[in-house]
Predict the structure.
Amino acid sequence: MKTKTLHQSVVFETDPHEVYEVLMDSKKHAAFTGAKATIGREVGDSFSVWDEWATGSNVELVPNKKIVQRWRGADWPTGHYSVVRFELKKVDRGTRLDFTQTGIPEALYEEIAQGWKEWYWGKLQAYFAKR
């Protein structure tokens, strides 16, 4: 199966700790997405977000700086995982999140690329704007 890599960057008007927490805390994740989330906080722990549509496990966690996870969508080929990397950096306007996802099935690339913008970055910006 052919795969592709996605790179996206977005700035949030809040500090890196808040961005890290909203991605890693089950209740905060559910609050910004409006969907059930169960997220383990340790390396090796599993996660399930978006009412169990996306699942995987934590590979590397550096609080307030980096999250690396094995990640897959429910409609992906059986057993296929990508790797997502969220890197957080303090900038003048808040926090820049540099996102990389490797191993995306080529046929799903456009849908996944748009999905991160619509279902994560847009919703996160709205979440932080309300606070």
Observations:
- The helical segments are 16-24, 26-33, 109-129.
- The chain has three helices and seven strands.
